[in-house]
Design goal:
With about 400 residues, the protein is an alpha/beta fold. Helix content is about 25%, strand content about 25%.
Length: about 400
Amino acid sequence: MIDKTESAPDVTPVEPEFKAGQHCELTIHDLAFGGEGVGRLGEYIVFVPFVIPGERVQVELTEVKKRFARGRCIKVLEKSGDRVEPRCKYFGECGGCQYQHIAYTTQVRLKGKQVGDLFERVGGFDRHCVEPIIPCPAPYGYRNRIMIRTQWNKQKQGLEFGFIRTDNKWVVDVDSCAIAEPALNAEILKARSNPPPKGGLKVVLRMNPEGWVVPRDSFFQNNFHLLPRLVDGVREALRRFGSKYLIDAYCGVGFFGLEMAAQLDGVIGVELDRPAINAARQNAAARNVSNAEFIHGEAELLLPKLLERFPVELTTLLMDPPRAGLLAGSIEAILNSGVSHVVYVSCHPATLARDLKLLCASGQFRLDRVTPYDMFPQTQHVECVAEIVRNTKGPVEKTGLGSPI
């Protein structure tokens, strides 16, 4: 599996014999993390969107580099049995989805393979640490939050109201979204009937989760349908370890910490988003949760002190950081803390594998398991819950990221 978001393919650079605009035929043999099919012209690699492994396709090269090229599929010459009719009329033009042309069971299988490949190649782990992927019960109509963009189209002298196109930064005009909750599609029509005064603005449409205070710009998981299984996975990880305490880093509105509070003696959540922390306190009060504390601040700076608050052998550190992953300060704090159990929730398996490699490199931790959850059907994205457990007990040898760990 080739991840186009990481380093270039491991082949000897040669002057390409191909040019942009050239037509060629190739067989797709893999699907890269990011959604593009992978084919070869000899040893030369070509990335093509909206194809399926096993298909023979006619391609027009659109970009040619020394080590790889990109192309667009002109015609499917030999069609995969897994190819289906996309449900959305904007698919292929709108950049929100990459997999609507693939049967859902096959999407799930391909994503599971991608996660295993990333953990093997980026993290250096045995791919068997990756558990079977958990599918979503609602492959369409699941997104509870969407961001509509507006852009003035000079040619038609009108406002485009929709999502970024697949092939550029322009906006494709839409009146519905196949992966959005039905209630949000109704909101799209309402917003279109009362558009903003100019282009360049963003309109956030959101369904608030029942019983939770969530500020407009604060994070909450975007799929209510699979969320209970994700919560069960985290809860089971804490039960398996025997956790008594939880530090919930990047806690948002306190969702995971409050969902776990009943089985714990103490919870501390930390979050930089002040409105989210205020909401977390309100959510705790609404649930009469008295064993949870929520602190405003940067997790990277506060983790060393927070990790001293509870007995490390009974404490789980739960992290759900942004897509970019952990900063060096957080990794160093974890390595120096003595905490025994880390549960890492991530929507970007490549950065997850990278961070876990750093945490496990010194032998202090071992990767116990990784469970993928298809929280984003029809798209390239996949959520993962990973567990690492400390191998050693007793005093922790301090490390610095400037020296080998």
